[in-house]
Write a structure and sequence with these properties.
By secondary structure, this protein is mostly helical. The chain is 80% helix and 0% strand. It is built from 16 helices and no strands.
Length: 292
């Protein structure tokens, strides 16, 4: 396989998106136990979750090839450009999915394998093939699959679904709409051209901006729960309040943005927000074991 062809297959996996998913899964693993999680479960769990996420991303490319071809953001993907054929993408996605399930079943546990498979189907089939084209609330309903990685990481090392894992799930679930709708506002012409009923297309930009603010305010409340439920302590609380304050500033400013590009600034901040928030959770989790 040539380097150029390898790059096309790599692009199918949506590496930046998948990296964020795997990052939250690893944080879930590290939060699930007092010290260092079992390395074999953690390593094989991370690999299995990564492969399943990559498989779902490849299926997304396959199903969305028509709309990708008419959207400026996605026109250079492997299928619209003809760099890969649909049968190649299908075989690649199946191979990744099968290997991920094999790794999770054999080296991790059946619960993680089942939940990971459900998440793969939820994103690749239910969201991409149906919800994305059926309702402007697609990202709200479909966000269930995207919020699953911390739960998958938690179950990888413990074999059970803990309420704290569900709390991590809830944070990502509520974070997803303002994150994605900010991008949808900026790319609304693309979605309209592709006939995808994203909220800014069906209900207008002003309506969507208010929804971004509503979900951001709800996210602020939800991110207080780790402290209230004793999953985390004051270090996390202080960091979360700062991050939430900045996110609220962006959401309020988005109501009357200084430029069309500002929606993308909100989108980019939301990614930093989630990564740093989960980083604060991990640091706070390990603080008691740090010698004074």
């Amino acid at each position: 396989m040539s380097l150029a062809l390898a790059r096309q297959y790599w692009a199918l996996t949506k590496p930046r998106v998948v990296a964020l998913l795997v990052f939250t899964a690893i944080i879930g693993m590290l939060l699930a136990v007092p010290g260092v999680p079992p390395l074999d479960k953690a390593i094989f769990g991370a690999i299995g979750i990564w492969l399943a996420s990559a498989s779902a991303a490849a299926i997304n490319h396959l199903i969305d090839q028509r709309i990708d071809a008419v959207m400026a953001r996605t026109a250079n993907r492997p299928l619209p450009t003809g760099a890969l054929k649909p049968w190649q993408v299908l075989l690649f996605a199946i191979a990744l999915g099968l290997v991920s399930m094999l790794i999770l079943v054999v080296f991790v546990n059946g619960l993680t394998a089942a939940l990971t498979f459900a998440s793969l189907i939820g994103y690749a089939v239910i969201y991409t093939a149906w919800l994305k084209r059926a309702t402007p609330q697609n990202i709200v309903i479909g966000g269930v699959a995207g919020a699953a990685p911390p739960v998958l990481g938690w179950t990888s090392v413990t074999g059970e679904v803990h309420p704290h894992a569900l709390l991590l799930f809830l944070i990502i679930y509520i974070w997803t709409p303002p994150h994605f709708w900010a991008l949808a506002i900026y790319r609304r012409d693309d979605y309209a051209r592709a006939m995808i009923p994203m909220l800014p297309v069906t209900h207008g930009v002003v309506y969507t901006r208010w929804h971004v603010l509503f979900y951001t305010a709800l996210l602020v409340a939800i991110t207080m729960l780790p402290w209230l439920t004793h999953l985390s302590g004051l270090f996390y609380l202080g960091g979360a309040l700062v991050l939430d304050g900045v996110f609220l500033y962006y959401a309020v400013r988005l109501l009357k943005p200084p430029s069309e590009r500002f929606a993308m600034e909100v989108f980019h901040y939301s990614i930093v927000y989630l990564m740093v928030l989960f980083g604060f959770l991990l640091i706070d989790h390990w603080l008691p074991s740090v010698p004074v």
